[in-house]
Amino acid sequence: MLHKIINLTVRDVRFPTSLEQHGSDAMHTDPDYSAAYVVLDTDCGLKGFGLTFTLGKGTEIVVCAVKALEGLVVGKSLQEIVSNFRGFYRLLTSDGQMRWLGPEKGVIHLATAAVLNAVWDLWARAEGKPLWKLLVDMDPKQIVSCIDFRYITDVLTEDEALDMLVKAQEGRQQREDQMLKEGYPAYTTSCAWLGYPDQQLKQLCTDALKSGWTKFKVKVGADREDDVRRCRLIRQMIGPSNTLMIDANQRWDVDEAISWVSKLAEVKPLWIEEPTSPDDILGHATIAKALAPLGIGVATGEQCHNRVMFKQLLQASALQFVQIDSCRLGSVNENLAVLLMAHKFQVPVCPHAGGVGLCELVQHLILFDYICVSADLSNRMCEYVDHLHEHFASPVVIQDAHYMPPKDPGYSCEMFESSVKRHQFPEGDVWKLHQNK
Ligand SMILES: C[C@H](O)[C@@H](O)CC(=O)C(=O)O
Ligand SMILES: [Mg+2]
Fold first, then answer.
1. How far apart are CA 40 and CA 306, in angstroms?
2. Where is the Mandelate racemase/muconate lactonizing enzyme C-terminal domain positioned along the sequence (predicted)?
3. Ligand 1 neighbourhood includes 278 CB (under 6 angstroms)
């Protein structure tokens, strides 16, 4: 079957998470977790579901950008796309008029991610496999044929990537079996959003410890004394042997980041995440160098636009943890490039997953990374946030603080139609209710 794509719909779906300060940080004080939600219809009835993560008002702009890409997708068959996936990636990212909006960054790249995520979902469904398994079963040659190596061949050529994938085939079956049995290690961000009062923070931390969580991320960056107090509180609750990470969401200048984080060194954070502007590669390198003697690494990636930025962060030794994002980069295609570059530089990948649908999506990529690329779990973990999973047809399964490999065919981001209807902006019931208040 050819699975010709005959229609694309995109909807603005928003959840009022800001009401309870879920997802709040030093820069995003009122986040409404949202998605530009894409459905591809095919002539044989099979559908592909995709999304990109956004916040509230920004969603309508991403929806417009997805509509602008529609003509490049509708009318193509799945076979036509996947038999030259690199070419299709380039078609979307290199359109002579629309690339002016990026290229490969910002709103147009978020839209590209939403569309390509739906194409990957469609492909996995057509093959009857969860996406991670589709990738794991692919021939290394087919994997590299999905990647656009333009702009990264100075650090990673197609031949080198192929060689890496072929070498990592040894032990692949054991690692797959291990993942099916044990799952992939996760950490939680759900206990310590910046807007949570101490009482809530303590309760969530107590509950998380009881459920087996051992790695915790705390939001920092708004008030130095308050950060010291909150981080001491969390460290006291989780004890010396559990892991603590801190996340400033780009709040500081470079020197400010160094002095602020040095003050928090007593709570022994494993990493400081997004200490400064996500575009400041050399700034990150300066911070990483200054904090290395304190045993604190730099993590970044949730707002790293594309593979070129990751390439330079790696070249400059500016990060010790690579945080891929399933919706910020150009879908699976570009994430594959970053996983391979991270492996070449031997920097662990710890994906970003705070947001709606990001846990559902990124678990597939990190499973592939372990089974087929890195073969390593040391210093690696995937973020987990405990919000909004009830809206998904195939929600993540967490067992003993590990992501259990999804079993349903696809890329796990199909939402229930009833949830989409209720949360669609502005006409959904949830938003009518809030507008009337
Ligand atoms: C606005 C988002 O909730 C952001 O704070 C998420 C994030 O930085 C993370 O999960 O890491
Ligand atoms: Mg973050």
1. 25
2. 198-294
3. no
